[in-house]
């Protein structure tokens, strides 16, 4: 009689299962195939992947992109504080006007100039006064209603059993007080805007002149030739700005490269490999996200070059800004005794007048919007 003999895979399956799970690269067993849960990713691996993604995104956004954008903002603020764009435009045009000033003047003229600002101011005042009158009428109506209620309550005593006027109108009074506060705050802000408008009205008016009149209002450079030291300072400023423009291009490229590197950075295969190593001796070993810390550190080192470049950009910008400041003051020292200083000052004033014009116009537009919003709320109330 034939004796039935069970295959070793059936009689003693545990060693086979352990051997079959020992490596992800092991081909499937010819009889039982792949282990049942071989492709099941441990929860700790999911957690580790999430932790890594958070660290990676924080590193890229805060230590690379945000710092580069902050550096660029500091540079532009520094250049603007020294008024270098106007200085360079002035130096290139000893007569006539820079194109930037001509564009700004054309914009102011097309929008009506200083008269348009005063017209907007009048509109704001009329709207504010109208809102205040509407609100005052509303409060007067509430006061009259309360007086009538009190008179009738005194006359009919207990027969007048309706709720008191103050109870019925409490919400309306609260809304009215809120609107009154808004109007008062807006009026204070309007007064500040009016003060700025009066202060800058004269020089803003210059921007509305014709091109010929505008050119005549600006002093020409009466020096026959700028000194060599002054020319050297000007060339140095131009060269430094060109260097910084190159750095700005490098920063834009660096940000793009960092984003691409982060998008392509998939740590999942490395995590799975590490998890397989941790469970090689026993599939029941508990895996914790903290066990992948060394892997995180190693994988994040790919961003070290980006961070180092950011640090270098910081150092280079500090040097360039310091040199720009020195060159600027050297240039200004050379212009203090000739007509170019007066010319530059006049052009700076026109540029500042344009900025104030835009600021005041924006403030007045916001004032009109506020008045319209308050009036709408008053009607709804």
From TrEMBL:
Q: Which GO terms describe its cellular component?
A: endosome
The UniProt record lists the ALIX V-shaped domain at: 96-369
Note the InterPro entries from the entry.
Answer: ALIX_V_dom (IPR025304)
Task: Report the superkingdom from the record.
Answer: Eukaryota
This protein's name: pH-response regulator protein palA/rim20
Organism of this sequence: Rhizopus azygosporus
